[in-house]
Amino acid sequence: MTLSSPLPARAISGSSVPFFDGSAQTEQLMPEIRQAIERVLRSQRFILGEEVFAFEREIADYLGVRHAIGVSSCTDALTISLSALGIGPGDEVLTTPYTFFATTGAILRVGATPVFVDIDARTFNLDPTQARRAITPRTRAILPVHLFGQAADTDALRALAEEHSLAIIEDAAQALGATRRGKRVGALGHIACFSFFPTKNLGAFGDGGLVATNDDALADTARMLRNHGFSPKHHSRTLGGNFRLDALQAAILRVKLPELERWNAERRAHAERYRAALGPVAGLVLPTEDSNHRHVYNQFVVRTRERDALATWLREHEIGTERYYPFPIHLQEACARLGYARGDFPVAEACARECLALPIYPELETRMVDAVSSRILEFFAR
Fold first, then answer.
1. Residue 122 DSSP code
2. For residue 253, what are the domain limits?
3. How far apart, in Å, are the Cα atoms of 111 and each of 73, 80, 86, 141, 198?
4. What is the pLDDT of residues 349-359, one digit of tens each?
5. Within 13 A of 319's CA, how many CA atoms are on the CB side?
6. What residue spans of 191-289 are helical by DSSP H?
7. One domain for residues 337 and 215
């Protein structure tokens, strides 16, 4: 296949492209953010309080769920969700070996056993067919990750869960605003977890997370668990922790939430521009999106056997990239006791060797997308 011609030199002269840069977004919203911070300072309510509760109402409405519980991080949201479901020692949770470690770490932290399932080579998400084969009498839940901003096949996973009386815990850290069949992630399982890490589609000015559910009992338990198990105050009904979302972060997120749909649309527009420029490149696999999904591109991840050389080439031309994820979880030291070996999950292992994330964020300029594409075309044309 013939490669497209590189873009004109003027598209890339004198410019670098950072992998992520949130400064423009912050600058645009600075007056509203200052007002929100000053509102919290005047209230002197820094822990929970009306600012957090208002954000919870607003994001629950956005997600289409009854309950949203602001917490300190997505890692803590995962731990809370597993604990709220009563999952612990002796229980197994099916999950993916190709994601950020926090997903597995939360399962280990509650004393349960992660059981890994290989991924779909096209979507990078948990493969439902292989999940079926991994179920045992000890399986209590399936924990899919909506990786890179695309919803997992929750239709198939939900049917499997119902057949075996399992819970579905959505790790939606990278996918706020993504949909499947018109329904937002966060409302596709029994309980869901989100991240507000600064690089996420909705980013705070520090750590933050969310638990979302339509189950009243799970919501009540999650609220207790985030605050030392208290209900009422100073009465610990269960063993919880200090997993609360700061009021300052909630106030900032309230400013940003109304912009999320626009920002996600801009991410999708950048993805389409990448796709149009890079589609003809032999040896480069681009992210796919089927008609049942709306991908929100927290990352735009390509696959190539020349991943490391491409990353080096782009770095030499002042273009930032990230290797997501270079070490599959089943081969990491923290999981050695689980007994997995190289070759157990060939698709996940291939993705760990071959995947590279390109810059994609709302404030990325068209000329910057073109610059990245041009350099990639040059690399493959050499």
1. T
2. 26-258
3. 20, 13, 11, 14, 29
4. 999 999 999 99
5. 25
6. 216-225, 247-256, 260-278
7. no
